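ok new one. same drill as before - structure tokens go in, u give me an amino acid for every spot. 300 of them this time. try not to just spam alanines like last time pls lmao
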């Protein structure tokens, strides 16, 4: 990825955005194969953010594809926690290249062990049928909503403060206006507006990777709120297990996107969350599904 935009625009982006751009800048480490390395981002809990590793795997897979083929889906499994003190090695297998579609497998490795495994599919642009589910009504305007970073800082929790400093996106909950009482919302459902904290380079691959990055944020929250559980509950354990993302239409991630989230089921220490990402014109940009481990301590 060309990083000249970063050096040419000092001060135009928050340190968290610079950190994300650094993490998504891959170095080819094997001249004879598709092996890359990338830095790890600091996180307050000492383990890698899953969205970072997933976005890096997407960037690695995209590095082996011609520019005329765009990623249209990825399916990944989070295998073990990542280490923030160790770079990530990304290994790509070129599984298939057809007339219209290509398939790649990418693995993220640390300490010689895979921490994330993904298969992604790419397609040459084509015509065809076109429809999408409309966005829900009354999503509000993100400018009228309370900045999520302020909400994190207001908790006084050290982990929340760490998240506030490391998230490269401005995020705002549709039920929390800047002025006034938070409005009620259906239990387990929420809408979160997202936008990168500063302008990103024009590279479409970077915007798709950044969309992968942000799609791992806030999605499992509804599983907790549906049961009246706070993420600050002592002994609570939550971790992403797998993630599926379908790219329907292109959108810039440095412009506002609405992430409509719902949880249809939780059972056996796991919960399923689903999301739809819309732009401000109501176009469906992407669909997301994620299952997570959710272990709530017994009242006893």
């Amino acid at each position: 990825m060309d990083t000249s935009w970063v050096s040419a625009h000092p001060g135009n982006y928050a340190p968290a955005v610079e950190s994300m751009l650094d993490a998504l800048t891959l170095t080819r480490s094997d001249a004879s194969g598709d092996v890359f390395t990338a830095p790890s981002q600091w996180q307050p809990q000492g383990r890698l953010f899953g969205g970072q590793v997933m976005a890096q795997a997407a960037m690695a897979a995209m590095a082996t594809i011609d520019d005329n083929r765009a990623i249209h889906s990825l399916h990944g499994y989070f295998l073990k926690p990542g280490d923030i003190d160790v770079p990530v090695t990304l290994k790509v297998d070129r599984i298939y290249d057809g007339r219209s579609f290509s398939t790649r497998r990418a693995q993220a490795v640390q300490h010689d062990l895979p921490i994330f495994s993904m298969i992604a599919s790419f397609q040459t642009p084509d015509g065809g049928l076109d429809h999408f589910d409309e966005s829900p009504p009354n999503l509000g305007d993100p400018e009228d909503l309370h900045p999520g970073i302020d909400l994190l800082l207001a908790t006084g929790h050290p982990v929340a403060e760490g998240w506030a400093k490391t998230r490269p996106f401005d995020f705002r909950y549709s039920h929390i206006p800047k002025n006034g009482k938070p409005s009620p919302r259906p239990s387990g459902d929420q809408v979160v507006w997202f936008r990168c904290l500063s302008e990103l380079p024009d590279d479409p691959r970077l915007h798709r990777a950044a969309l992968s990055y942000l799609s791992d944020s806030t999605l499992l929250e509804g599983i907790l709120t549906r049961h009246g559980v706070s993420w600050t509950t002592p002994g609570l354990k939550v971790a992403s297990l797998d993630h599926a993302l379908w790219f329907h239409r292109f959108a810039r991630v440095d412009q506002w996107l609405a992430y409509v989230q719902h949880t249809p089921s939780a059972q056996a220490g796991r919960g399923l969350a689903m999301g739809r990402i819309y732009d401000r014109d109501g176009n469906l940009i992407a669909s997301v599904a994620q299952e997570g481990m959710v272990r709530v301590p017994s009242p006893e």
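Residues 1-13 have pLDDT under 50 and may be disordered. and btw Residues 50-62 form the longest helix (13 residues).
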